[in-house]
Amino acid sequence: MNSDQRTINDRYRTMLILWFAMAMSLVLWLVLIHFINTTNPVNLKLGFLLVCLGLVPMSSSFLVKQVLLGRAIERQDAMVVQQAYVTAWALCEAAALLGLLAHFVAASPHYYVGFAVGGVGIVLHFPQKKHLLAASGQEF
After folding, report:
1. pTM above 0.85, yes or no
2. Mean pLDDT value across residues 51-55
3. 106 near 44, Cβ under 8 Å?
4. What is the per-residue pLDDT across 106-132, written as a single tens digit (0 to 9) for each?
5. Helix 44-53 vs helix 112-124: angle between axes, to the nearest 10 degrees?
6. How many CA atoms lie within 13 A of 94 on its CB side?
7. Numbers of helices and strands, H then E, in the chain
8. Separation CA 89–CA 111 (nearest Å)
9. Res 129: pLDDT
10. DSSP collapsed to 3 states, 71-127
């Protein structure tokens, strides 16, 4: 195994660990919600607005990732692939954090929709080794 392949495997392993950490952070936010009681009055409109706003960063994460992956392949820079994925995961987590905000600020009973949107986005952005191979100039 040459050093380029080893570097790609190490980078892919790092991306898998980061993906798992981002997914588990959503679970930890949900656990936090169940241990902290809110005494705020229910504001369904604000809660609905916050949950709907969560769709914006999650949907834009796909566009941002594609643009950054294209840049990584063009520049033959595998580090930009990792940046593309981390940026996409962060945008998906923003959707979940808006659900968290809907729970704590608006006491919305539908906060879980924000977590579902963010979780689905993170699952859909599962790291793929072919992007690293393409950015390093290798076939997949």
Report:
1. yes
2. 94
3. yes
4. 988 999 999 999 999 999 999 999 999
5. 10
6. 16
7. 6, 0
8. 19
9. 93
10. HHHHHCCHHHHHHHHHHHHHHHHHHHHHHHHHHHHHCCCCCHHHHHHHHHHHHHCCC
